[in-house]
Write a structure and sequence with these properties.
Blueprint (H helix, E strand, L loop, with lengths): L2 H37 L4 H16 L2 H16 L7 H27 L3 H9 L4 H31 L11 H12 L3 H27 L6
Helix pairs in contact: 1-2, 1-4, 1-7, 1-8, 2-4, 3-4, 4-6, 5-6, 6-8, 7-8
Amino acid sequence: MPLNVVLEKLMGGMGVTVSIFLLTLLFSIPLGLPLSLARMSKNKVLSVISGIYISVMRGTPLMLQIIVIYFLPFYGFGINVTSGYRFVAVIIAFSLNYAAYFAEIYRSGIQSIPKGQYEAAQILGYSRVQTFIRIVMPQMFKRVLPAMTNEIITLVKDTSLSFAIATAEMFTMAKQIAAKEASLAPLMAAGVFYYVFNLLVAHVCKRVEKHYDYYRI
């Protein structure tokens, strides 16, 4: 297979990889916050349910979750799905999985805020919602950025797990080409793409961390 054709197919797969990455962040980052608040809720039902959810999502393989979500409509409800559902299933699985990780990261950030700040806000007449939005959330966001960066970088590599249901992302394409050509070159090229993508993501995250660094000179 000519090199330009191989690169063209890999770049097409890279587009799917980037789409999975961006859509997962789009849904999981905001979803993690209410999940985290439910986990810390004084309502025992909410706290237990969210705790079980987080435990299951973090305690079982992401690949298994992808497979379950893809086959659940048919085996669970008898609904026939089209091949287009593969991508949707991947996004759902990744978003639900990473929301659980982000929820725990948010929880650690929220619980790290000194109680004195809540008391000061109460004295100043802030409501609980105003306290959270104006005082707690900005500080929490800054404190959890390094941990979020690690999860986001991991997400870049985890996108390759979507091969489990034959989603045509970059690793799947590289594996198919490598099998057809009996060569490791496509897999090596895919590795280079992942590495460069990770460098770009790490650079952007570092810039965001630097922007919110209160102590920079």
